[in-house]
Every structure is written in C-alpha cells, then in structure tokens.
Design goal:
Length: 216
Amino acid sequence: MISIVIVDDHAVVRRGLRAVLEGEPDLVVLAEAADAAQAADALVRTDPDVLVLDLMMPGATGFDLMKALRARGRRARFVVLSMHDSEAYVIEALRCGASAYVVKDAPIGELSTAVREAAAGRQFLGSPFSRSMLAAYAERTEAAVDDGYEALTPREREVLQLAADGLTSQQIGERLAISSRTAETHRANLMRKLKIKGHKDLIRYALKKGIGPPGP
C-alpha cells in the first residue's frame, strides 16, 4: 500500500484528489494539508511514501516546501500537481526534487500512475510533456549564458509568471496572499536581477523563457 499526503490550499480540490486516489486499491491518503507548514507537520506525524502537492500556495511555495523537506532528509517522494503547463515550471520542480509532474487538466489516471512511479523511485512526466523534450530544454538552459533567472527566488518566479499573465501587483498580492506592496517589491527585484526595465520587456522575457501566458 502506497501512503500519501495531499497538499493544496483549496479544500474542494483536496477532497476530489482524496476520492480519486483512494479509489485505487493500492493507494491510501493519510492526511491533507492546506499549506507548507501543515504539510511539514503532516509528514512528521504520518511519514508517507508520497507527497502530492500544488506549487501555488499561500506563504511558502511548493518549490520552497520541496527544498526544505529535502534539506531535512524526509524520505517522501514528491508528485507535483499544478495548473502550470510551462516547461520552465517542470524543470524547476525537478530541480527542487520532484519525482513526477502532472497538470491539473490531465486524464485522471495520470495522477495515480505518477504516484506509483514516484513511490517506486522512478520519474514520471504527464502529458503534454516528454522526457526528450525536457532533456532538450534542460540542455538549452544549461548551455545558455546566465541571464539572471537562476538568481530569482521561487517567489520572484511566481510573480514573474503572474505578471506575464497580465495580473497587476494588487491581483498578484491577492493570488499569493501577500500585500500589493510586497508584490510590487518582488516585481521590482526580479526586474532588476533580469535587467529589464518595463512591462513589455517583462512579457518578452517570459515568453522567451517559456513561462508567458498560454496561447489561444
């Protein structure tokens, strides 16, 4: 039996994921968590095989959580279930320790498969991603001249994504549960690190990195 903790800040999503996962005879959900702090507590209490987590949560991000748990030597494997279908997000999740990445609009069976593969110590990437595509993307990323992206914090990368999606600082603050002033500070810091001066340049940069708004 593969044991699981679900981490997502939406109760309805957690309930749906529990129903899907516990519908499988070899999977059991031990606990749910709404944020990184609750997740860390749940892992101490239950010691699951797999953590199924979202990337966008109030406070610490899913990226932050994975890095923190890896640093603490937690044995759980990480399966990211995210609304973001950008290659850049997948690459970053893998760098932070994720064993699997599934988008939220993927076929239901992909999540169960991802959990099983992760628990077995294997990597799984759901559609529309492929290992060859990501390997090529990672190679291009490593070969590229450092343009400042690696210096961005996980929160600054979130703000970059949301700003590229057209959200204002106030809307970004609401989405991330931070003040609009803090969101504006993150935006200013990331623009300084990336050496870009205005919103149009930010959009161009995001599209170049593959983290801009989705196409029609």
